């Protein structure tokens, strides 16, 4: 009977899952079709907006070339000619923030040019720079040449900048020098525009003007025509309101690690996912931009899709109802099993770890050392170091067992950094520790570590007991050999050597050597009294 009950639940669960699977499949197919249709419609809208934006920025080169013709056909252009030409040319270009003319001026020409500025009641400092810290004009120092703003349109916005030496601005210096040689056109990275009271970020399109010879070849460098564009103002004017576009439109500079140049309106819903993203290249003179048109508007869901979703939820509820009782029992059993397994692992760990210090205990030391002794080969032996804390009983008697435990814990913590990954550190019990070092040739290679141990024990004891008990360490060393690879014998030899170190005044070490009073102090390196 129990088997039939089991089959019944499997059949019920299978039926519910099949209903959910079919509902999900139909629902996803409907959503995919609707998403495809919506994205295709949005793609057409995005293409239209890209063409509009590309048309806005593509007008910069033709306008600059038209201005360049004015200077190439005339040796001297007056301010009135520049203004009249700009009025006619820029009347249909309201998106251009400003046009500047910066002639090439050598030091001997500076005085005459400054006199010209004074006659216009402009540039009281003469040629000037802008202090980057205080944002105030300062007189331009002597330079090999100057590029001052002589003409500007529209004059109402930029009259106060007449006389500003563009060459004194370190930004884009390399770009200007290159254009002076080639006579070409290039766009700068985005920068805070000092011409705009709001400090809006702008870009400058530089066009180097050179004399034209009678043969049509380029002659000497005359100066720069500079067009200022504010991409953010353009985007917000043309694509700013949601009524004009459902999209966010932003410009990125591909030559500046995709730095954002502008966005048509604030994107205040950064937490919402992007549902549609379209990228288009946008070429500027000497620079590559990228236009991203994206939307965070949720894709529409039709009523039929919602009905499918309701069906899916209904089937899921039925399946959950039938599965819940069986799964609940399985989960409880699994949780109990995991708890028992965790307790078993913890008991296993506690059986091999000293509960006070967290070091290996006597049993784990025995297992590890026996295994290593069995694997030892001539030339690769083991050195067993037994450490006993001198005057530890006085700590317990005078300051209490809690202070003694604290001392053992502190010594264990200080010993850990001295132990290499291949070494073993264990506590036998009480105040006795054992350290096992693999050695290759002679025990001398572990003596630096032994000396460090002898120095740190008094230091730790001073910190814990505050000088009430003189704490030090006595160490006994024993070495394995092809004829001496017995765990108990090595431990006994290290114990004898340790007691010999205590007899020699404590705070030192002794190396066990059979036949010479059973122990001796290493003659190559006399016992060192720890500081």
UniProtKB/TrEMBL annotation:
Residues 380-514 form the GGDEF domain. It comes from the Bacteria. Keywords: Membrane, Transmembrane, Transmembrane helix. It is found in: Membrane. CDD domains: GGDEF. Residues 73-292 form the CHASE domain. Its main location: membrane. The keyword Transmembrane helix applies. It comes from Pseudaeromonas paramecii. The chain crosses the membrane at residues 7-27. SUPFAM superfamilies: Nucleotide cyclase. This is Diguanylate cyclase.
């Amino acid at each position: 009977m129990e088997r039939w009950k089991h089959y019944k639940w499997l059949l019920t669960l299978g039926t519910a899952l099949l209903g959910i699977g079919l509902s999900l499949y139909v629902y996803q197919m409907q959503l995919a079709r609707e998403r495809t249709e919506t994205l295709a419609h949005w793609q057409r809208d995005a293409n239209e907006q890209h063409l509009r934006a590309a048309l806005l920025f593509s007008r910069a080169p033709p306008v600059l070339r038209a201005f360049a013709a004015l200077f190439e056909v005339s040796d001297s252009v007056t301010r009135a000619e520049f203004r009249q030409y700009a009025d006619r040319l820029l009347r249909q270009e309201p998106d251009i923030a400003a046009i500047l003319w910066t002639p090439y001026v050598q030091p001997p020409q500076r005085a005459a040019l400054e006199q010209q500025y004074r006659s216009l009641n402009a540039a009281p400092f003469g040629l000037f720079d802008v202090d980057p810290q205080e944002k105030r004009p300062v007189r331009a120092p002597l330079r090999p040449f100057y590029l001052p703003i002589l003409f500007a349109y529209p004059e109402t916005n930029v009259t106060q900048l007449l006389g500003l030496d563009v060459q004194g601005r370190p930004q884009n210096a390399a770009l200007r020098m290159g254009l002076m040689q080639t006579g070409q056109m290039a766009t700068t990275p985005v920068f805070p525009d000092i011409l705009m009271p709001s400090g809006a970020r702008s870009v400058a399109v530089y066009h180097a003007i050179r004399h034209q010879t009678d043969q049509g070849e380029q002659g000497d460098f005359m100066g720069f025509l500079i067009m200022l564009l504010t991409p953010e103002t353009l985007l917000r004017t043309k694509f700013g309101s949601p009524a004009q576009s459902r999209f966010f439109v932003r410009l990125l500079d591909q030559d500046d690690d995709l730095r954002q140049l502008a966005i048509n309106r604030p994107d205040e819903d950064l937490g919402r996912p992007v549902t549609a993203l379209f990228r288009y290249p946008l070429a500027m003179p000497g620079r590559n931009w990228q236009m991203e048109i994206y939307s965070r508007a949720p894709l529409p869901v039709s009523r039929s899709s919602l009905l499918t979703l309701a069906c899916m939820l209904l089937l899921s509820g039925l399946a959950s109802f039938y599965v819940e009782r069986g799964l609940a029992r399985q989960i409880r059993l699994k949780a109990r099993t995991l708890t028992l397994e965790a307790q078993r692992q913890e008991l296993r760990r506690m059986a091999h770890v000293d509960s006070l210090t967290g070091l290996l205990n006597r049993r784990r030391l025995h297992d590890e050392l026996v295994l290593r002794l069995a694997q030892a080969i001539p030339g690769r032996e083991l050195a067993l170091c037994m450490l006993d804390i001198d005057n530890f009983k006085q700590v317990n008697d005078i300051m209490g067992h809690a202070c003694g435990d604290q001392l053992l814990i502190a010594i264990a913590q200080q010993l850990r950094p001295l132990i290499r990954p291949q070494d073993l550190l264990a506590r036998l019990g009480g105040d006795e520790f054992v350290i096992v070092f693999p050695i290759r040739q002679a025990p001398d290679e572990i003596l630096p570590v032994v000396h460090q141990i002898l120095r740190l024990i008094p230091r730790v004891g001073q910190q814990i007991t505050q000088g009430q008990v003189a704490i030090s360490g006595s160490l006994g060393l024993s070495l394995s050999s092809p004829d001496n690879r017995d765990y108990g014998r090595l431990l006994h030899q290290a114990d004898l050597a340790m007691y010999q170190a205590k007899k020699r005044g404590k705070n030192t070490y002794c190396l066990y050597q059979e036949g010479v009073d059973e122990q001796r102090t290493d003659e190559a390196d006399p016992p060192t009294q720890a500081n």
